User: Which sequence fits this backbone?
């Protein structure tokens, strides 16, 4: 009744091309952003900011990167953690070796470096598809982590291999407290998510989806396969690289290769599958789900068993439940949480009528 | 020892490791052949199998009987997996099936640790890891009794599978299902039962691989990551070929060993086994996308 198509007139091309055609949607997003920027930093506890919100935003960014390559372009990639590592180390090294390097510029350059690395490891996609390509990206993951661990230059020859990330300073303002870090991460993620949404709706996005659906047909119709696939790898790696830089600087506070293991790669893949392939909202929802599920399970078990059982056994049970949850989700809703949201919106459009 | 002896040892060491990789990869091939699903949980099943054997043995059950019990458990696991995980997902996208098997891997790992605990334990097959005397004295090469045993087991397993696939009615059914599910159904081949059987057999292969690997490395969680190592083997051998997997496993084992010994340790600082098989597989893929023995992928547009 209130959430409806009618009454939303489009009087210009700009209005026609809006991301949110319904006025209520636009209002809702503005309210959400206002809450996120104004209310959350003042009222959220430091734990909530540091342990939940900041990693959620950063992982959503990585999930967007994963979604671009796997959801939109259909190329299965298990190397996102490796690319995040490249981003983190590139940002660290740019800030270390170039005096007076501004933080945002370092992040941008780190993203571009990761894009180049992504293109290099994406070259096999021109020849192989599907699971075979997954192996190529797996190679990227292991090779990148090994290189960062064994080639001393990247870690500045630090004997422990773990470096403290430099402080984030923009125009003289030092982002140190959790609330400040949260706002910085929110700004970067919001901008990049908007860019991704627009890319997905534009010619680039359509070329990616054409390659996903049937790449031979896409080539016949006139899409340049090499350019499309490599562009997908480049942009996806850019997002993963920026996410990695933020992961190290704004969340962990240290730059180390072991934080970017293959488990993180699988996590981003899960986020994208559970959240919904080829949706930007899905990246956020999936990241939230994957981040919150272990926490909920831990709290639930603490509540139910009251700390009676051995911690190791409990964590094994959590792993089991996690896997079971994923299987359940894949069986019940293979298109992910974003689809559930879409169905809900469609029902809401018709409410109170049934059809 | 002479450079030639060192080379021979490296090659033989690589062959042995490669054989073990092949055993793990064999389970993958079976499941992929029958249901075009890439079973990421194979590594977890290897770990689960080994843990089950050791778990039963620790409970006081005599060793070979606990192996039998473990076989039963793996069959049960395979059947339940097919029923609960694979059947509802029939016809879904390849990536969805792959993700489901990753979820399954988590479930099996969690189950293994829940049932049998998280400590690292030893698997004792009763075969000492000592060099075979007459080979050592005659050629100066180090081939242990265990290596020999592993090679024999692998050969017997592969031989049995080859015979089953080509000579028996069941094997023919399996090959029909691998070729075309729809046609197999239409000709009256019991699809569900074949799939259950395939998963059960893959579970048993995982058990054998698990027992062999665990004798070398102990029953520990890291066994799960064997699944990843088996991927290059599958790529190079082709996802659907049993002899291909053996050849490819040996090839990967030897190449990985030789790279590590001659290039990795002296020049690059070691640890190259983590990534070399994958890079090797990529290079191989660029030259031959279907692998050595794989079926040529014909896509109709």
Assistant:
């Amino acid at each position: 009744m209130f959430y409806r198509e009618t009454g939303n007139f489009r009087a210009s091309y700009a209005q026609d091309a809006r991301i949110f055609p319904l006025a209520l949607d636009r209002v809702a997003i503005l309210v959400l952003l206002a809450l996120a920027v104004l209310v959350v930093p003042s009222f959220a506890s430091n734990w909530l900011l540091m342990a939940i919100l900041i990693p959620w935003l950063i992982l959503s960014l990585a999930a967007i990167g994963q979604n671009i390559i796997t959801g939109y372009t259909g190329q299965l990639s298990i190397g996102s953690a490796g690319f995040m590592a490249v981003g983190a180390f590139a940002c660290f090294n740019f800030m270390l070796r170039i005096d007076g390097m501004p933080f945002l510029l370092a992040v941008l350059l780190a993203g571009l470096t990761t894009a180049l690395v992504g293109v290099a490891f994406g070259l096999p996609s021109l020849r192989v598809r599907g699971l075979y390509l997954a192996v190529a990206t797996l190679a990227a993951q292991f090779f990148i982590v090994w290189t960062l661990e064994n080639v001393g230059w990247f870690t500045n020859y630090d004997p422990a291999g773990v470096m403290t990330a430099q402080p984030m300073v923009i125009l003289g303002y030092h982002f140190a407290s959790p609330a400040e870090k949260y706002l910085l991460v929110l700004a970067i993620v919001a901008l990049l998510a908007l860019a991704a949404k627009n890319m997905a709706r534009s010619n680039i996005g359509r070329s990616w989806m054409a390659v996903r659906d049937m790449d031979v047909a896409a080539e016949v119709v006139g899409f340049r396969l090499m350019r499309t696939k490599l562009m997908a790898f480049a942009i996806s790696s850019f997002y993963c690289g920026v996410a990695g830089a933020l992961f190290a600087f704004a969340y962990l506070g240290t730059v180390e290769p072991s934080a970017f293991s293959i488990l993180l790669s699988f996590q981003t893949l899960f986020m994208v599958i559970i959240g919904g392939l080829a949706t930007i909202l899905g990246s956020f929802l999936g990241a939230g789900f994957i981040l919150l599920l272990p926490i909920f399970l831990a709290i639930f078990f603490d509540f139910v068993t009251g700390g009676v059982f051995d911690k190791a056994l409990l964590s094994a049970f959590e792993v089991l439940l996690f896997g079971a949850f994923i299987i359940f989700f894949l069986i019940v809703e293979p298109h992910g949480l974003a689809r559930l949201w879409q169905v809900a919106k469609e029902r809401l459009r018709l409410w109170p009528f049934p059809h | 020892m002479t450079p030639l002896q060192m080379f021979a040892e490296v090659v033989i060491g690589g062959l042995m490791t490669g054989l073990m990789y092949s055993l793990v990869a064999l389970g993958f091939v079976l499941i992929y052949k029958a249901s075009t699903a890439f079973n990421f949980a194979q590594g977890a099943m290897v770990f689960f199998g080994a843990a089950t054997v050791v778990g039963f043995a620790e409970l006081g059950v005599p060793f070979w009987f606990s192996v039998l019990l473990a076989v039963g458990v793996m069959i049960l696991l395979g059947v339940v997996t097919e029923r609960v995980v694979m059947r509802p997902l029939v016809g879904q996208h390849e990536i969805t099936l792959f993700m489901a098997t990753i979820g399954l891997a988590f479930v099996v790992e969690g189950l293994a640790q829940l049932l049998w605990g998280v400590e690292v334990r030893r698997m004792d097959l009763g075969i000492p890891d000592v060099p075979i005397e007459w080979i050592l004295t005659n050629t100066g090469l180090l081939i242990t009794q265990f290596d020999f045993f592993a090679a024999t087991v692998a050969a017997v397993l592969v031989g049995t599978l080859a015979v089953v696939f080509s000579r028996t009615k069941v094997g023919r059914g399996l090959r029909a299902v691998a070729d075309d599910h729809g046609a197999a159904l239409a000709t009256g081949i019991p699809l569900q039962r074949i799939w259950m059987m395939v998963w059960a057999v893959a579970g048993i292969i995982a058990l054998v691989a698990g027992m062999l690997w665990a004798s070398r490395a102990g029953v520990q969680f890291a066994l799960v990551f064997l699944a990843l190592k088996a991927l290059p083997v599958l790529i190079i051998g082709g996802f659907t070929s049993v002899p291909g997997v053996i050849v490819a496993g040996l090839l990967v084992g030897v190449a990985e060993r030789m790279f590590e010994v001659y290039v990795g340790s002296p020049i690059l600082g070691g640890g190259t086994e983590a990534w070399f098989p994958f890079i090797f597989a990529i290079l191989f893929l660029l030259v031959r996308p279907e692998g050595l023995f794989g079926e040529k992928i014909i896509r109709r547009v």
Remarks:
- Strands of chain A lie at 163-164, 168-170, 173-175, 254-255.
- Chain A has a mean pLDDT of 89.
- Residues 214 and 260 of chain A are 33 Å apart (CA to CA).
